[in-house]
Amino acid sequence: MRAIVCHAPLDLRFDSQAVEPVGPRQLRVRVAFGGICGSDLHYFQHGGFGTVRIKEPMVLGHEVSGIVNEVGSGVSGYLRGQRIAVSPSRPCGLCKYCQLGQHNHCLDMRFYGSAMRFPHVQGAFREMLVIDASQAYLVADDLPLTEAALAEPLSVGLHAITRAGTVFGKRVLVMGCGPIGALLIAGLRRAGAAEIVAADIAELPLACALKMGADKAINLAKDTDGLAPYAAGKGYFEVMFEASGSERALLGGLDVVAPRGVIVAVGLGGNISLPMNTLVGKEIDLRGTFRFHSEFAVAVSFLNQRLIDGRPVISDILSFDKASEAFTLAGDKGRAMKVQLDFGVA
Fold this sequence. Notes:
This protein is of the alpha/beta class and 346 residues long. The protein folds into two domains: 2-150 and 310-342, Medium-chain alcohol dehydrogenases, catalytic domain (Quinone Oxidoreductase, Chain A, domain 1, Alpha-Beta Complex), CATH 3.90.180; 154-288, NAD(P)-binding Rossmann-like Domain (Rossmann fold, 3-Layer(aba) Sandwich), CATH 3.40.50.720. The chain is built from ten helices and 20 strands. The strands form five sheets. Strands 3, 7, 8, 11, 12, 19 and 20 form a seven-stranded mixed sheet that branches. A six-stranded parallel sheet has the order 15-14-13-16-17-18, with helices on both faces. Strands 2-1-6 form a three-stranded antiparallel sheet, with helices on one face. It is globular.
């Protein structure tokens, strides 16, 4: 089979790989659609992010849907031909964090397309994928597999909402409206946020944010003081999600978050300096969020029931054979939101 392998920055290749055998508790899946994520782009453009670097050729991709091709002898509940969304998260289930229910912090995590450990965990952008049966989630008959492939980024947004605590009835600001931010907005709408303001520096993501449920969109490139009115009276928003990874966005948000408000940092932006006097004086909670676990099942359920419509997030679908073109397009935030690869099986 063929796989999309990153060998070095801007060095993306179609490599032939052996088809893996299927174990008793595993499924073989024909990959149907795969979404290009921000981490995939970092590997493609820069060879990694922060201290995480590619040290050997690595198959990219972790946002995929597919069709069951073979069922292991010990697996029940799945049949050949069934349509599924695939969770890329494979925690060990044994370490202290898994035992605490914090599977996203597993000490032996195997997450598709990740160079955080060595040898790297190979990704899911390949024609055939062997998965643990526990990673498979059935897709409704009327849900296109393109939308099913959004379950992973939606899960990231849902976990971020969980980290914020309750957002019911709250005034919420979302800074950064790429695919994660846009899907997070849809999740906020489901969770009962009273008001959602979206801010970004490009028109395309802001237009998508409105379709996904934002009440107002502010282009901070055109209106640099667009958030200024919300700073009055020590701040307006009770919760803020920083999904751009921008130091400027995070620091700017401190002025518009009300005392005892919560800021959830979703985007990866590297090390920054924080004005601790502001954090302390306004009693602001700054919280991180990392991946997901139980939220994947919720994400698939929301998509299956059309409680969240992810179609506005998908801007482009290109053939698997045009992977390099797709990665280049995905890196252009002025032209694309979520770019997906079509593996040609659905």
